Request: fold
Amino acid sequence: MDKIKIISSHIAEESPVDRQERISWWRQDILRKAKILVVGAGATGNEVIKNLALLGVGNVFICDMDRIDTSNLSRTVLFSKDDVGKKKAKTAAERAAEMSVYPDFKVDYFDGDVVYELGDGVFRQFDVVIGCLDNLNTRLSVNKRCCLLQKPYVDAGISELACSLNVFHYPHSSCYACGVSSRDVAEERRIRYSCDVFKKRAIEEEKVPTVQISSAIVAALAVQEAVKILHKDVLETEVCFGKRYFFQGINNNFIDMIVPKKEECLYHNSYGDIIETEFTNKVRLRDFLEYVKEKNGEEYTLEVGSELKFVISANCRSCNKEIKFYKPAHRIYEEDVYCEECQKAGKTTNGYTDYKYVLDFCHDMEEKDILDMTLEEIGIPKLHILSLRNKDDKYIFYELSGDIKNVMPNIY
Ligand SMILES: [Zn+2]
Ligand SMILES: [Zn+2]
Reply:
């Protein structure tokens, strides 16, 4: 009997992460320092966020633009009946903070359109990006930013009892887009945009038939990959990037395949050196261009890329009259492209319309008024990274780093 030690005082002091720390290679300090970006706080996002909080990951950023719906409740561990109607991202962040094993867990959230309103600089701050999305459009946009900033991208998908997991790290492997056909990309555009450039308000998106257990399986696999990626310097087995795993729960088939790097993939670009600035997206375009000119001793042109078209005017789809917009295309809906009279008369017609837009912004641009607009007004999100080009086509990249406190007040 004298061999039995009373250890009850010990139990009270036991660490909540004791069991995982017993894994020989486990480094809890790596997880505590880690920063993970979770895009999508639906069924899979809920499971992923729960896993991260319980593992003791120190910093989590959650993105979602939707509100909680009754139909979510059977699949969302972080939401309860009283949450119906509340914002998913904010609610998930609050629950994650309650659930974390650490009181100093840091969580921030973004409640908006990831494709157009989340700056590329956000992605720069994170070690791993986990996509818990239900549509190709947002997946491709997240993939684009992961390529530009060379971040590991773990993408989870579900359908009925099946789930798929994609793990990429461009330029070390292929990217998500390498495995997507151009036909699927075209179909996705057809669903979301009119035949010219404007957004459709009501999109014909299909509701995926699925169940919580599929989310739980794929979320566990996704977070396990993230844990391994974070431990890459201490793990003997290397994480395989450029791979797709598919689990069919109906017959327990588990297959993995390599996604080959496509030479002609349009997503294989990365930013060069990024220069931090104290600016936010509230700076006037004129002042920003002035600053860049002063710093570099020559004029630079701000290039926003074809996805961020700034529309000056478009012709009414019905009577062809010119309508002034001075707005980025992503803030204009298809039905806005009718003049007031035609809207009142209920005249509608489909088809392509002419529109005038800007992709390059510089001091000597034709539409001088635009120089007095803020970067936010021309469509640049907070904490974005801006590409500037001089007359010799040399590029420099400036980040609106002044926004970091606005975008992630807890993490920073
Ligand atoms: Zn690719
Ligand atoms: Zn009209």
User: Anything to note?
Assistant: The chain has a mean pLDDT of 93. The chain is about 25% helix and 20% strand. The pocket of zinc ion (ligand 1) is lined by residues 174-175, 177-178, 262, 265, 267-268 (CB under 6 Å).
